[in-house]
Amino acid sequence: MEKLQESQKGVQVRNKIIFLLSIIGIIAGLVSAYIYGIQKKPQPPVFNPAPNPYSKGIYANGIIESYQKSGENINIYPEVPGTVTQILVTEGETVHNGKPLLTVDDSVQRATVEQLKSQAEAALALLEELKAQPRKENLEVAEAQVEYASASLKSAQDQLDKQRKSYELNPKSVSKNDLDNAENAVKVAKANFEVVRKQYDLIRAGAWIYDIRNQEKQYNALSKAFTSANALLAKYTLRAPADGIILSIKAAVGSYISSQGAYGTYTEGYNPVVVLGSSQTYIAVRCYIDEILIHRLPPASQMKAQMFIRGTNINIPLEYVRVQPYVSPKIELSNQRTERVDVRVLPVIFRFKKPKNIDIYPGQLVDVYIEEK
Question: Is 1.10.1670.40 the CATH classification of the domain at 48-67+280-373?
Answer without folding.
Answer: no
